[in-house]
Design a protein that fits this description.
- This protein is α/β, with parallel strands linked by helices and 325 residues long.
- Helices cover 45% and strands 14% of the residues.
- It contains eleven helices and twelve strands.
- The strands form five sheets. A four-stranded mixed β-sheet has the order 7-6-5-12, with helices on both faces.
- Strand 9 and strand 10 form a beta hairpin.
- The longest helix is centred in the N-terminal third of the chain and has 21 residues.
C-alpha cells in the first residue's frame, strides 16, 4: 500500500545518521539555531494551512490516511486516536510521527512511562506476552510490578518481502525503548531472492545476517542471573546473552525461512525451544497486538495522569455518599 515513494523514504531514513547536536563553541550553533527556527516556523505554517508539516510527513501521513479509511470501513466506525509502532531509525523523530498522524486526522496516544515513540520491537515484545502489568489502572502498582520483571536480552528478527532486519535490545517491560544494536538489509527480503545466483546463495546470505547479530550476543540463550538494575539500565553478568526471540513481518512464517533461522541459531542453548514458542504467534500481527494492548493501557492510565494513593477510595466514598442521598 505504501508504494515507491514510501519505500524510498524508509530506505533513506534507515540509512541516515542521527541529526548532529548543535554546538555554540565554534559559533556554528547560532546559524544552526536560526536555521532550525526557520524550519519549525515553516512546519507550523504548513500545518495551519492544512498541509503536511514536511514532504516526508506528507508521504507517511498519506499512507496513514489510506490505512485509516480502510480500517474504518472494515470496523464501520470512526477512529480518532492511535498508537503507532515504528522502526527505530535515528532520523525518524517523534515529532514527524505525531505530525503524520495529525495530518491523517488522528491523535497520537502517549503513555505515562514511555520515553519517545513506541518501537515495533517493543510492541512485539508486548504482543508476545512480555512486560505487561496485570493492573492497568493502578499506575503505582503497575510500576512496582514492572520493576520486578526480569531483564530480557531480546533478538528480534523482522522478515518481509522487502527487507531483513535484526535488532538486539534489552527490555525489562513494555515501556522500554532501549535498542543496543540493529541492522537492516534491503537486499535480503524474500522478494530479493531472484537477485542472487540461486536460492542456496540467498538463504546463506539470510543465515549469515542472523548469525552475525546473534554472535554479538554470545554463545548461549539462557535465563539471566545476577542482573543488576541501575539508573542507566540493567547490567548483565554476561552482556552477550539472549533470553527472548521475536519474529515479525509478513514473510517470517515462511517455512524455508524458519528452517534457516533454526540453522542460524543451532548451538544456542534454549534457542530451539524459544523459537518454537513464538512460531505460534502470527508475526504479521504480533506488533499490532502489542500496540493495541498498550493503547488500551494508555487510555486507562493517560499520559500525565497519575492518581495519588487514596484517590480511588475518596472517589468511592463520594459515590457512596451520593447513593445515600
Amino acid at each position: 500500500m505504501g508504494g515507491p515513494a514510501y519505500e524510498s523514504l524508509m530506505r533513506r531514513l534507515s540509512s541516515e545518521p542521527e541529526p548532529p547536536r548543535r554546538s555554540c563553541i565554534d559559533g556554528t550553533g547560532i546559524s544552526e539555531e536560526l536555521s532550525e527556527g526557520w524550519k519549525r516556523n515553516k512546519r507550523r505554517l504548513n500545518k495551519l494551512l492544512g498541509r503536511p508539516a514536511t514532504p516526508d510527513v506528507g508521504t507517511r501521513g498519506s499512507l496513514i490516511r489510506a490505512l485509516r479509511a480502510k480500517t474504518e470501513g472494515e470496523l464501520e466506525h470512526s477512529i480518532e486516536s492511535v498508537l503507532a509502532a515504528t522502526p527505530k531509525f535515528p532520523s525518524l523523530t517523534e515529532e514527524d510521527i505525531d505530525d503524520a498522524l495529525e495530518f491523517a486526522g488522528l491523535k497520537s496516544l502517549k503513555g505515562y512511562d514511555l520515553a519517545g515513540s513506541l518501537t515495533e520491537t517493543t510492541a512485539a515484545f508486548a504482543g508476545s506476552g512480555f512486560g505487561l502489568c496485570t493492573n492497568n489502572t493502578e499506575i503505582n502498582l503497575c510500576k512496582h510490578q514492572q520493576d520486578a520483571f526480569p531483564a530480557e536480552r531480546v533478538l528480534a528478527v523482522h522478515f518481509t518481502d522487502a527487507t531483513l532486519s535484526t535488532v538486539l535490545t534489552t527490555l525489562t517491560n513494555a515501556h522500554s525503548n532501549y535498542q543496543a544494536k540493529s541492522s537492516i538489509d534491503w537486499h535480503a527480503g524474500l522478494g530479493a531472492m531472484s537477485q542472487f545466483p540461486d536460492a542456496v546463495d540467498y538463504w546463506n546470505h539470510v543465515r549469515n545476517k542472523i548469525q552475525r547479530m546473534a554472535a554479538a550476543s554470545g554463545d548461549s540463550i539462557r535465563p539471566l542471573e545476577g542482573v543488576v538494575l541501575t539508573p542507566t539500565g540493567p547490567v548483565f553478568p554476561n552482556e552477550r546473552a539472549i533470553t527472548t526471540l521475536l519474529l515479525l513481518g509478513e514473510s517470517a512464517a515462511d517455512k524455508r525461512f524458519l528452517d534457516v533461522l533454526r540453522e542460524a541459531l543451532q548451538g544456542y542453548e534454549g534457542a530451539q525451544e524459544t523459537l518454537e514458542a513464538v512460531i505460534d504467534l502470527d508475526p504479521l500481527y504480533v506488533a499490532a497486538r502489542g500496540a493495541a494492548e498498550l493503547a488500551k493501557l494508555f487510555q486507562e492510565a493517560p499520559y500525565g495522569c497519575e492518581e495519588p494513593p487514596g484517590c480511588r477510595e475518596s472517589l468511592q466514598s463520594l459515590f457512596d455518599f451520593k447513593q445515600d442521598l
